[in-house]
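Troubleshooting log. The previous structure file for this entry was overwritten by mistake, so regenerating from the original sequence record. Sequence copied from the archived sheet and checked twice against the printout by T.R.
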Amino acid sequence: MGRVGRPRPAPYWATWYALARSAGVEPGTSVASRIDRGDGMHGMVLGMDPLVAHQRAQDTFAHVLVNVTSDQLSLPTPCAEWDVKALIDHVIAGNQRVVARAGGQVEPLPEDHRAAYRASAKAAQETFAAPQALTRTYQLPIGELPGTAFIQLRTSDLLTHAWDLAIATRQPTDLDPELAEYVLAFSKQMMSRPGLRGDGRAFGQEQPCGNERPAADRVAAFLGRELS
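Regenerated output below.
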């Protein structure tokens, strides 16, 4: 029997809440006007086409996932509260929530984690590619979020967790350098405001990482992951 609404082992909206607050948005308000006038999140629509970036992030996670073996599912990840299986479930659930927030029907998923991921990724990409999907707003726990912001945050989440999965399963972390540079630029813009880092906050302190390291390593270090 398929699965719908796979478990999420930790609060999912903490990062999105912090990012929205960095743009000066309070819960229950709309951030659309701020993005339209270039305040805070405007960089989400610059650089790479957001649909292309989202698909590449989905492909990047899939590329790492295909090499994960069943005996690795209980390994720890850089996300202290998640093992490999919980991390995969978190990403799949994020894809499902894209469909749900757009008012679509969340279909049951296969039991196999690779097949479940592929199905959820396809559904999320199709949801964002639908007419007006990036110009409409989505009602989230933090308030109304425009599609351009929603897709960028999903792209960042996918790439970062692809890195987490690669680290946990001892795979290379040189993940789609062009996409990683795009996500890094977005992350630096979003994190330019104070109050997002530290104990009890969405992000840890930026960690040391030389410019010679892969761009995905630099994204991870910027968002607080420790590099070996």
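The CA atoms of residues 14 and 200 lie 10 Å apart. Archived copy saved in two places this time.
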